[in-house]
Amino acid sequence: MECKFTNEELVMKYQNGDYKALEIISENNMGLIRHIASRYSVHCNYIDHNDLIQQGWTGLYRAVQTYKADMPNSAKFSTWAGYWIQQAIQRYLEQETPKTNETSLYEEIGEDITLEDCLEDPEALNNLWSYIERQDLRRELEKIMNERLSLKEREILKLRFGWNDNIQWDFRSIGKVFGNTGQNVHTSYKNALYKLRRSPWGQKRIAEHLVEKRLRCRNIPLSTILLEKLHQVQGYALKV
């Protein structure tokens, strides 16, 4: 029998205690889960497609728990769900990507650098160290963001800088995901940068940056320095 309720109405019913609504929501959005999972399984043939479907469902469940249908200008549930399904699958892939304890001399580093190349070519060695530094910086940023920022602030920064998929979202598009205006998202974005800037990690990085360039602190906008650091790790989420 055809369902008479929209996704948004079903989510509200579930959040108000009608747990049977979750089954209908799952059925209504299984096509969305399969679509997103298929985009990843093409490039990750070492992962069972059904595992991606399962992870997508956990993302859908997270979306059901966090969606606020009664908020003014709220995004459609399908938009909100798509975001959380993608996040769940990406995090699963990061955990399941094969890792080895020892790196082969012929294993690729970055796009086209091998350790063998580095032994023969000083310039390749410099590129390798640059790659390693980016990975270290990314891990530092991930840690400090988890400590200092709210979930919403972290996700805004990650979407803005293409943290997970190398696609930089504009503020209006991010606003549609969170049910906010682009201006509100921009305000949250600036607040998040301010928190990072004022953290001990941010102050240390700023000091290091100033020493490197031999400039006084008052001559460089502090927000510019933080933006520079975030741009350095842009697009490396699935490679860590």
Rounded radius of gyration (Å): 21 Å
**How many separate domains make up the residues?**
2
Largest sheet: 2 strands, antiparallel
CATH architecture of the largest domain: Orthogonal Bundle
Helix content: 55-70%
Given the helix and strand composition, which structural class is it? mainly alpha
Strand content: under 5%
Overall mean confidence score, pLDDT? 72
Which topology of the largest domain does CATH recognise? Answer: Arc Repressor Mutant, subunit A
Number of strands: 2
Account of the protein in words:
With 240 residues, the chain is an all-alpha fold. The chain folds into two domains: 90 residues, Orthogonal Bundle (Rna Polymerase Sigma Factor, Chain: A); 92 residues, Winged helix-like DNA-binding domain superfamily/Winged helix DNA-binding domain (Arc Repressor Mutant, subunit A), CATH 1.10.10. Helices cover 67% and strands 2% of the residues. The chain has a two-stranded antiparallel sheet. Strand 1 and strand 2 form a beta hairpin. The C terminus is likely disordered.
Q: Can you give keywords for this protein?
A:
mainly alpha; Rna Polymerase Sigma Factor, Chain: A; 240 residues; two-stranded antiparallel sheet; globular; 2 domains; disordered C terminus; 67% helix; Arc Repressor Mutant, subunit A
